[in-house]
Amino acid sequence: MAQSSLDVMGFQHIINKSIDELDSVLRDINKKIHENPELGYSEFKAHDNIVSLLRDQGFAITPHAHALETSFACSYGNGGRIVAFNVEYDALPGIGHACGHNLIATGSIAAFLGLVAVLKSNPSLEGTALLLGTPAEEGGGGKLKLIAAGAYENVSACLMTHPFSAPGNVTYGSCMASSKFRATFTGKAAHAAVAPYEGINALDAAVLAYNGTSMLRQQIKPDQRIQGVLLEGGERANIITPKSVLDYNVRGSTLGETKDLQKRVVKCFEGAAIATGCSVEFLETNTYADLRPSRALCVAFSEVMKSVAPDHSWTVGETPEPGAYSTDQGNVSHICPSFHGVYAIPVKDNAVNHTPGFTKAAGTDDAHTLTILTSKGMAGVGMRVLFDDAFAKIVKDQFEEAQKAEDWSR
User: Fold this and answer.
1) CA distance 382 to 299
2) 3-class secondary structure, 233
3) Which residues form the Peptidase M20 dimerisation domain (predicted)?
């Protein structure tokens, strides 16, 4: 459908009305996910509850999609371009939904249902809405596996929003790339009192590596991060530790920069192995790419939100506002035009993401209400991508130009 014949306001009214009419259903799924937190790749209740909701709404759905037990896929439409909405629902160990993935799931489901309502209102419209269950965002790299399985092939735009505790909303924002790896030092056990000289201390190697990366932080860029924890460091004080394991996360503004920093961190580990006589082995766990937001999608979202939520600000700057977090949505943004809007929800005592205080905030009525507003915006943008040929071309052209740009590759 050409831009001149696109009934933007009429379609947005259908979106808003349909989402509002389903609010009780959406509140119910939000509550179920929030009250039953599950870790990555174990989100069985969330998966089953969402599948049940969609089936109750009359959709054909593929559970356990793309060879992932807790993923699903649900589409509706009549050919044409495809707009995908990502549904995250994994929690954090010990603190539940401290990143608000219950809200992310709710918002994406609502946006999908709103866009479907437009498609149902006029069967002659070409376009497909796709809802993807994306497990294990919190370090598990679920979207990386979905990408490898071809889940995002032929997707013209992928959208999601994310709750934060920041004082304002971020429409056009990027985030850092992240590379995670595990290092295992192997030494030799010995009696720490009788014959310590017969041992090779893997705990010493871990401590040296940790201190080495701590000193390395003095010579890295202000926006770079090196984070690590000791997972195994021995069992008894009177046994020379034969094995130690560290888990590390290195971040930089781009994927190339992050990998360069990781090489410097690895040298600290290799030096510690040489100094102590240990051997060291590395295991790459996952790599999250930097987020490349589509400016056209961000501008369109901002425009929709002026009518949906006029009391809220959704400005779009000339360049993306940098974020210090990382997400596997970054990897998705490298293969198709993407939107990852960040919206502020009310919190108490300045609680931030990944804290118990944010878990409580993510379960409030206010947080749900704000999430529903963003879902209407996402559905409105999805409507433009599906039915506005000129806009869809701008989105595609901008994405292809960004792919060629040197600053994205580093």
Assistant:
1) 13
2) coil
3) 180-271
Cβ atoms of 127 and 395 within 8 Å: the answer is no
- Can you give the pLDDT at residue 406? 52
Element (H, E) at 306: helix 295-308
Residue ranges in 363-388 assigned as alpha helix (H): 365-387
CB-based contact 163:280 (threshold 8 Å)? no
pTM: 0.93
Cα separation, 252 vs 342, in Å, equals 20
277: left (phi over 0), alpha (psi -120 to 50) or beta: left
Burial call 329-353: b when 16+ CB within 10 Å, e when fewer: bbbbbbbbbbbbbbbbbebeeebeb
Q: How far apart are CA 170 and CA 340, in angstroms?
A: 9
Contact 177, 224 (CB under 8 A): no
- How far separated are the first and last CA of the chain, in Å rounded? 38
| Interval 276-300: pLDDT, tens | 999 999 999 999 999 999 999 999 9
3-state secondary structure 275-296: HHCCEEEEEEEEEECCCCCCHH
| Domains annotated on the chain, with CATH | 3-175+291-409 (3.40.630.10), 177-287 (3.30.70.360)
Whole-angstrom Cα distance, residue 79 to residue 102?
A: 30
Candidates 89, 287, 317; CA nearest to 176 is: 287
pLDDT tens string 58-71 = 999 999 999 999 99
Q: Give the span between the Cα atoms of 110 and 71, in whole angstroms.
A: 18
Query: Residue for token digits 């560290």?
Result: 246
Instruction: State the amino acid at position 257 in one-letter form.
Output: E
